[in-house]
C-alpha cells in the first residue's frame, strides 16, 4: 500500500517504501555526521576564541567559517535528515522557505570564507613584508561581514521573492510540486545565476590564487636551498618561517579542495537539472546534498591532522585545562605564527 505525506490524496507527495532497517541505518549514519560536525567545529570555535595566541587574521576567518559549519549542522542538517529519510516535509511551507534559505546561505558563506582565506594566504606567502599593512583586523572583519551578508541577501531574496521559480512556474506547480515536499527548485536562469554566484566565480578565484601561491612558494623554497650554505643562521630562520607559511597555504588549499570535491557534484547537477527537464532523480539530489554537507564535517579533521596547535588545544579542552586561571595565555606553539 502506498503511503502518503498528506491526507489529501490528489496533491500529496508519496512517502518512501524503505524498510525500518534501512531507515534506522540512514538515521544512525546521518546523526553520526551531524554530531561529528557539531563537536568538531565547536572545538575549533572554542580553541580560537579562548587562546589569545590563536587570535591571528587567518584564524579569525577560520573561526567564522567554523561558525558557518556549526550552524549548518545545528540548523539545517537535522531537518534535512528527516526529509531525506522520510521523503516528506512535516514542518510547513513557511519553515520550508526559511530552511532552504538558511541552507543556501550557509553553503554559499563557506565558499565566500574560503575565497577570502585564499586572499589572506596569498599576501602571507607571496608578500609577507606588507602582509600586516594590507591585512589588518578591520580588513578581516570586513571580509567576514561580506561572507555572511552577501550570501544571506542572495539566499533569502531568491527564495522569499520566489526568483528561483522565474520562468518555470507552470512546470513547477503542474509537474513537480506536491503537498508535503520541500525541494530546492531552480529555473534555467536562476539556476545559472546561483551556480555562478555561489560556486563557479568564487571557486575559480580560489583555484587561480592557490595555483599562484603554489609556484611562488616553490620558488621561495628553491631560493632558500640555493643560498642556505652561505647564510646558514639567517636562512635557517627564514626557511622555518617560509616552511610554516607554505604549510599553512597547503593546509588551507586542502580545505579548499575538500570543499570543491564535496560541493561540485551538487552544484553541477543543480545547474544541469533545468536543462535536462528535471529528470535527475530526487534521491540523487538528496545524496549529493549530504555529500556537500560532509564538507562541514571534514574541515575540523583537516585542522586536527595538519595543525599541532589544534591537537594541543583539543587536549586542553578535553582535560578541562581551559577553566584554569590564565589558561587563555598558554602557548600552543613557540613562534607567533601557527
TrEMBL record:
Note the InterPro entries from the entry: GPCR_Rhodpsn, GPCR_Rhodpsn_7TM, TAAR, TAAR1, TAAR_fam
SUPFAM superfamilies from the UniProt entry? Family A G protein-coupled receptor-like
Which Gene3D superfamilies does this UniProt record tie to the protein? Rhodopsin 7-helix transmembrane proteins (1.20.1070.10)
Which keywords label this protein? Cell membrane, Disulfide bond, Endoplasmic reticulum, G-protein coupled receptor, Glycoprotein, Membrane, Receptor, Transducer, Transmembrane, Transmembrane helix
Q: Does the keyword Membrane apply?
A: yes
User: In Gene Ontology terms, what is one molecular function of this protein?
Assistant: trace-amine receptor activity
Taking every annotated instance into account, which residue ranges of this chain make up the domain G-protein coupled receptors family 1 profile? Answer: 40-303
Annotated membrane topology: Multi-pass membrane protein
Main location per the UniProt record: membrane
Transmembrane segments annotated in the record for this chain: 24-48, 60-81, 101-119, 139-161, 193-213, 252-276, 288-310
Q: Which GO terms describe its cellular component?
A: endoplasmic reticulum membrane; plasma membrane
Compartments it resides in: Cell membrane; Endoplasmic reticulum membrane
What SMART domains does the record point to? 7TM_GPCR_Srsx (SM01381)
Q: What top-level branch of life does the organism fall under? A: Eukaryota
- Give a single Pfam family match: 7tm_1
Question: Ribosomal protein: present as a keyword of the record?
Answer: no
Q: Which PANTHER family match?
A: HISTAMINE RECEPTOR-RELATED G-PROTEIN COUPLED RECEPTOR, TRACE AMINE-ASSOCIATED RECEPTOR 1
Q: Which family does it belong to?
A: Belongs to the G-protein coupled receptor 1 family.
Protein name, entry field: Trace amine-associated receptor 1
- Species this chain originates from: Erinaceus europaeus
Q: State the gene name recorded for this protein.
A: LOC103124652
Amino acid at each position: 500500500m502506498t503511503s502518503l505525506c498528506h491526507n489529501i490524496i490528489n496533491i500529496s507527495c508519496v512517502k518512501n517504501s524503505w524498510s525500518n532497517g534501512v531507515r534506522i541505518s540512514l538515521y544512525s549514519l546521518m546523526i553520526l555526521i551531524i554530531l561529528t560536525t557539531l563537536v568538531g567545529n565547536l572545538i575549533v570555535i572554542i580553541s580560537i576564541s579562548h587562546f589569545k595566541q590563536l587570535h591571528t587574521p587567518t584564524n579569525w576567518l577560520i573561526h567564522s567559517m567554523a561558525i558557518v559549519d556549526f550552524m549548518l549542522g545545528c540548523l539545517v542538517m537535522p531537518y534535512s535528515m528527516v526529509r531525506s529519510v522520510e521523503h516528506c516535509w512535516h514542518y510547513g511551507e513557511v519553515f520550508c522557505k526559511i530552511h532552504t534559505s538558511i541552507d543556501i546561505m550557509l553553503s554559499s558563506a563557506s565558499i565566500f570564507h574560503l575565497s577570502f582565506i585564499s586572499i589572506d594566504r596569498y599576501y602571507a606567502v607571496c608578500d609577507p613584508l606588507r602582509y600586516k599593512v594590507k591585512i589588518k583586523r578591520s580588513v578581516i572583519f570586513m571580509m567576514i561581514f561580506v561572507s555572511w551578508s552577501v550570501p544571506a541577501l542572495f539566499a533569502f531574496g531568491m527564495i522569499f521573492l520566489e526568483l528561483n521559480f522565474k520562468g518555470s512556474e507552470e512546470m513547477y506547480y503542474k509537474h513537480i510540486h506536491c503537498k508535503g515536499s520541500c525541494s530546492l527548485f531552480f529555473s534555467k536562469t536562476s539556476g545559472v545565476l546561483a551556480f555562478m554566484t555561489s560556486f563557479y566565480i568564487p571557486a575559480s578565484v580560489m583555484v587561480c590564487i592557490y595555483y599562484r601561491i603554489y609556484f611562488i612558494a616553490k620558488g621561495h623554497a628553491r631560493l632558500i636551498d640555493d643560498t642556505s650554505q652561505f647564510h646558514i643562521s639567517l636562512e635557517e630562520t627564514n626557511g622555518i618561517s617560509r616552511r610554516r607559511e607554505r604549510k599553512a597555504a597547503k593546509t588551507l588549499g586542502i580545505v579548499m579542495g575538500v570543499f570543491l570535491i564535496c560541493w561540485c557534484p551538487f552544484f553541477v547537477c543543480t545547474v544541469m537539472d533545468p536543462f535536462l527537464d528535471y529528470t535527475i532523480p530526487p534521491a540523487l539530489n538528496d545524496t549529493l546534498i549530504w555529500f556537500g554537507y560532509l564538507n562541514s564535517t571534514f574541515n575540523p579533521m583537516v585542522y586536527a591532522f595538519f595543525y599541532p596547535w589544534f591537537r594541543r588545544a583539543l587536549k586542553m579542552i578535553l582535560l578541562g585545562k581551559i577553566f584554569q586561571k590564565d589558561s587563555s595565555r598558554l602557548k600552543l606553539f613557540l613562534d607567533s605564527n601557527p
